[in-house]
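Researcher: For the annotation table, I need structure tokens for IGSF1 protein. Please keep the output clean. Sequence:
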Amino acid sequence: GAPTISIFLKPPGVIPLGGSTTVCCVCQRDNGHFVLYKGGRQIRTLELRGSRAEFSISNATKKDEGGYSCHYMDGGTVLARSETVEVRVEEFRLPRPVLSVLPGCEVAAGAYVAFRCTIAHANAACFLYLEGQVQATWLPKEQADFNISRVHKGDEGRYSCQCFTGSALLEWSAVSKTLDLVVR
């Protein structure tokens, strides 16, 4: 069948002006190549290292913003297309949030886990990121929790959070320090 490919930012989240991120494209096959698109326009061919290819953005400006996607090619044939990952570049004005996980970073399969993103700002909402995922989880209020009632191996990974205020002009925080969730 057709290969499935994934795309994600490493590290995830909105990046600061002058900051950096890497667009990662991953496929289970290693005999083709990736072509990277921004806003539907081809920008470059990426070299495969094993089953993944990376495109680094450094010293980011507003010109780097947009929707990035990858096509997995074999010769001139497109075998698969990724979802689109949004790159946003902002000036960070809010304090850095703190991510915590209860009961801790190492849990038994089936346990109840709560992620909490705390920021010193009354009206901020936050996103919870899992490295390797395109979609973030929205945490609506100041000290929002994200609960996983029966944690499993698929929930493992590197988590972080980032907050913003939803006024007329969006203001962003830096991304929190990361936490690695391990499921035994």
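Researcher: And a one-line annotation?
Model: Residues 5-89 form a domain with the Immunoglobulin-like fold (CATH 2.60.40.10).
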